[in-house]
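Possible regression after last week's pipeline update?

I re-ran a chain I had predicted before the update to compare outputs. Posting the input and the new output here so someone can diff against the archived version. Not blocking, just want to make sure nothing changed silently.
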Amino acid sequence: MLDPALLREHLDDVRARLETRSDEHNADLDRLMKADRERRAILPELETNRRARKLVGEQVARARKAGENGGKLAELMQTGQEHGAVIKALETRLGSVEEERDACAHTLPNLPHASVPVGSSEADNVEIRRHGEPPRFDFDPRPHWELGPALGIIDFERAVRMAAARFAVLTGTGARLARALINFMLDLHTGEHAYTEIEPPFLANAAALTGTGNLPKFEQDLFKVAGDWDLYLIPTAEVPLCNLHRKEILDGRLLPARYVAYTPCFRSEAGSYGKDVRGLIRQHQFDKVELVAYAAPETSWDVHEELTLHAEEVLKRLGLPYRTVLLCTGDMGFAASKTYDIEVWLPGHDAYREISSCSNTEAFQARRAGIRFRRDGKGKPEHVHTLNGSGVAVGRALVAILENCQQRDGSVVIPEVLRGYMGGLEVIEPVR
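New output (post-update):
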């Protein structure tokens, strides 16, 4: 959520920065500011009437104590009732205005950081760096949706029968490879990168999803639990990890705080039909290792760079070629102030595809979730900055291994760093 003081004091600047994302936010911004003005006009009038009613109440008490029961007491009581009626009307109006203001505030995205390039689509993103070279094959490389079934490790047909399209079954060595990737990433991030591992709930309530910015604007992308439950399947571990300290005041001396979690993720992929319908790239259920950090505002940008490098390190250790891209204003996520996408090379697609998205949301999520900190453990609480990034998406890493490490005979060489997690297995052989 945007800072209300910033909106009031620098409205033109806020509007200009939001327009670099899209001009669709102007109407909501205007509605929000109108509601905010009405709220600020109501508050002094409401307070004046509350004070007046309190004063009249004291006068009534003194009159009764003095034995007054005539016209003066009746007049005072009538005045008190009139103030009460005005207060009730103003409180009703205030509630309606605050509801309108909050509804508009929750639809506005975060403001882009000054270093983010202005643009409208992925075509305007800026490549920052590359690591490794795409492999050169002396045969036509196959996509993973052909390799997986031929190796006997991915089954799409059975998944459709037991669930629906955009689900998959990993079998035998495929399931073990996914588990190896999860354990490798968790070991790397908890060991060398010093993140604290969390096993969170895989369901989150509406308040938690509102805190991260998934609700109310993106409810169609979520799977809601049926019945009277106020619960949704999490679309990413960012949701529980960024709500780990919801409504808390942190000790600034302990920042930055870094957390990592493996979870399955669930997304309806509303509006994506027709995109990546084959294979594991865009599934309704997928696994991910997520990185989240809480940082003081003055250090959060350094933490953002570090978090991105931590995600990149996974691909370096796996020996997978990738590039890191700075997203433009029109291609960033709702809550992000600045985002780096890490894109791994996929020979089956003949393109780089996103495998991690690393964002600094500044105080946007913390303001929605009520997460603050005190510098040196004391003083006035301030909103913390929250950061998140995939460290990395398990299914896409599996896809990248299959496609980049495939051999002419249809086998796939397992990256050396994973072999200890695979019982020493070095090559996945095709089903004969």
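Follow-up from reviewer: compared with the archived run. The first helix runs from residue 4 to 9. Marking as no regression found.
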